[in-house]
Amino acid sequence: MIVRVARFDAGRGDLGLDRSEWVIEALRGVEGVTALYHCLAKDGSAVSVTVFQDADAADAAMAKIEEARERLGIEVSPADDAVMYEVVGSLERP
User: Fold this and answer.
1) Residue 22: which domain range?
2) Could you please report the per-residue DSSP string of 38-67?
């Protein structure tokens, strides 16, 4: 399992659920995307946490996001920081 955590600094004009719904929709049908969370802090910063079954699913998802961005003509700045992590332990509940 792979987790991508992207961090977005406060003060950006492209944050918020109303501005990220297109990403959620783009990944909805992508095989191997287990979960996607967009989180806003009180200070205006945000994180995006995406969980993938494996590296192939992560690659497919990132390509789907770029495809949707181009198709929809959406202009957003890249994350201020993004890191891929291999999951080495977890607690999951149904």
Assistant:
1) 2-86
2) EEE-TTS-EEEEEEESSHHHHHHHHHHHHH
Instruction: Give the CATH number, domain containing residue 27.
Output: 3.30.70.100
Please state the domain count of the chain: 1
Q: What is the pTM of this model?
A: 0.86
For the chain, the residue count is 94
94 within some domain = no
Please write the tens of the pLDDT for every residue from 30-87: 999 999 999 989 888 889 999 999 999 999 999 999 999 899 998 877 788 999 999 9
Cβ(67)–Cβ(26) below 8 Å: yes
Distance from C-alpha of 84 to C-alpha of 19, rounded to nearest angstrom: 23
